[in-house]
Amino acid sequence: MKKQKTEGNREYKSDLFSMLMQEKKYALETYNAINNSDHKDPEAIEIITLEHGVSLSIRNDASFILDMSANYYEHQSTYSPNMPLRNLLYYTEDVRRWIRKEEKNIYGRSTIPVPTPHFVVFYNGKQKRPEQEIQRLSDSFTKQTDHPELELTCRVININPGNNVNIMQRSSALAGYSYLIELVRKYEPDMVLEEAIRRAIDECIAEDILAEFLRAHRNEVEKIMNLDFTHERQLELTARDEYNAGVQQGKQQGIQIGVQQGVEQERKNSEKQRLKDAARIKELEDILAANNISIPTERT
Known about the structure:
This protein is 52% helix and 12% strand. By secondary structure, it is of the alpha/beta class.
């Protein structure tokens, strides 16, 4: 399932995460951390990347094969319930290409062995989420069933500070990545973004956190983080604008509804008053008639 990487993924900080996971030693230690395993040889990792021309809609952050397992790792700063569906596309696309490359006959009588898939999302957004949770493809089905005939589960691991401490202690890539992002978040409100990124990288190197990686790829890391944080800020502004527009629209709708309700209430009140007046007049007419008093008519 070997493929080549394409360009253009603009999900928040996922390019930096992907860079880290392209390092076999980081991919291996992350695998060991989340699976409580103890594989030693990074060269046992076979990185899966994308071929040229593949649509970005089927691109994930990091994929590799180890011990006949196909591992799909994704990073997100914005929680999405659609990861099982996306992972289904990733895996089926990889298997389809592998079958074509190996010239396997899916209509033959022999079973075609394929790597066992495992899907993990590493979350470090600002929204509060559980330490770990499971997403299921069947939750997206229009018609729910207790026994789905197609299922895919995705494990979501929160890598924000204070979460999943055991995993973070065993993976310097996850711990360092989370720490670097938190430093930028800490400094960004009080300084220019580029300066905040440089300061965060300087501190990580000084504290020997991903130091070798950051020294080797510093220029690329700075560029990627600047693009990603800018993209994140644009998403926040867009979300805020949409929220404000929704609030304003809600106010306008509320005013319109209020006016309509007021007119309707006034109509009801007028109708009630008309009925009361008619009943009062009828009562007076009955009293006059009982006393043989005629009601004067208008002269012509």
